[in-house]
Amino acid sequence: MAVAPGFPARRAALKMLDAVMRRGETLEQAEAAALKGVDSPADRALARAIVGETLRWLTDLDLLIDSSTKKRLPDDAKPRGVLRLMLAQALRLDTPPHAVIATCLPLLTGGPRRLAHGVFSTLMKREVSLPDVPTMSDAVLTRWGKRAEAIAPGLIDPPEVDLALKNPDETDARTLDMGGVSLAAGHIRLPRGTPIEKMPGFDEGAWWVQDFAAQLPSRLLGSGTGKRALDLCAAPGGKTLSLAARGWTVTALDINGKRLEMLRENLKRTGIEAEIVKADALTYHPAKQFDAILLDAPCTATGTCRRHPDVLHRIGPRQIGEMTEIQQSLIHQAVEWLPSGATFIYAVCSLETEESEDQARWIEETFDLEPMPIAADELPAGLLPTMEGWLRTHPGMLADQGGLDGFFIARWRKP
Ligand SMILES: C[S@@+](CC[C@H](N)C(=O)[O-])C[C@H]1O[C@@H](n2cnc3c(N)ncnc32)[C@H](O)[C@@H]1O
């Protein structure tokens, strides 16, 4: 039987879905193997889009599948995986049902193929649709509680593209030039799918890609002219770039050589300078003193679920527990290195309370640090600090302007 055009993209999508759901791999890890041999950029983009939509809407797709099978298909059954992809294409990517059938059913043989065909055709005849907002899984609902309702509207679509400008004075001119919108000085938002490398200013390094929420921790350290900052978990370097662009003399430390290579490339392209240190922060001994330490700690990254919807299905109490321990070890080190008068920022791109608010409370109970509450006038319009003076963002915020990643940021001073 001849292979339908578009079949390689679906086969890759199934491999990626399987790697995330059964092996707990990240989408990035899964892509490397699954897209091997898929050469056309369009097919690669299609495979990514199919898996992205499938993971974003997984709970709702499963509810539809379960509504038309007599016996519930096991979570890891191949026909369920194929049906998830088929429905995501028909209901989210507007792929005509006949094209979905032609390209996806060859992923199965025999009885499972007939079953998937039957379920898909029944659902198409019923003219089923998805809800307006994706339903979160029970595991996510248990963790996020009431907040899930506020967050979920931010997960309907993948996010737009945010840029951070090296020179915030250029915001108006560059926003106009690129046809974007700006949510604050130094920020530009472009439509999803914008060919970034072709945009004006890329070659000269006038900006870099960074989610709006991820731009906030360095903003909260203010201008750094004549001052030194340690960016403790720095790679690939978004925060190093914005700190250095704000005048800070930055030491960027990270344990991961590959990620530091990206940081090096980012510095080169933007013409921004920073000292790079490849080291384990847990054994490193800084030779200098710093006016500020920014710990953008490793975390479960559930705050990036708009771009990485795999986190909605891979992360659970075990990973959260492991991360909170690593974060506390890193916090211990950072606080030890803070000289009197220096500022400490703890940030995570996580929506999990254990990695965020609970860690800030633990810091206040454990260390002799003075809170430096974040003030409303330090934040872009539409964002407010919490009662404790911390900043919590999530994808449902600034929804009418395209939302933003989930971040938690808190700030202290060493007395
Ligand atoms: C959230 S990411 C940092 C993102 C970065 N700040 C940025 O803005 O691009 C966390 C980083 O922590 C690094 N990391 C994890 N454990 C570390 C350790 N023990 N010492 C140094 N870096 C570590 C990881 O390699 C990863 O690059």
TrEMBL record:
User: Which residues does the record give as S-adenosyl-L-methionine binding sites?
Assistant: C233, A234, A235, P236, G237, G238, K239, D254, D280, D296
Residues annotated as domain SAM-dependent MTase RsmB/NOP-type? 137-415
Domain of life where this protein originates: Bacteria
Q: What CDD domains would the database entry show?
A: AdoMet_MTases (cd02440)
Q: Which InterPro entries match?
A: MeTrfase_RsmB-F_NOP2_cat, MeTrfase_RsmB-F_NOP2_dom, NusB_RsmB_TIM44, RCMT, RsmB/NOL1/NOP2-like_CS
GO MF annotations in UniProt? RNA binding; RNA methyltransferase activity
**Which UniProt key words apply to this protein?**
Methyltransferase, RNA-binding, S-adenosyl-L-methionine, Transferase
Q: Which GO terms describe its biological process?
A: regulation of DNA-templated transcription; RNA methylation
So where's the catalytic machinery, residue-wise?
A: C349 (nucleophile)
Cite the Pfam families for this sequence.
Answer: Methyltr_RsmB-F, NusB
Q: Which family does it belong to?
A: Belongs to the class I-like SAM-binding methyltransferase superfamily. RsmB/NOP family.
The protein's name is: RsmB/NOP family class I SAM-dependent RNA methyltransferase
Tell me which species this is from. Answer: Erythrobacter crassostreae
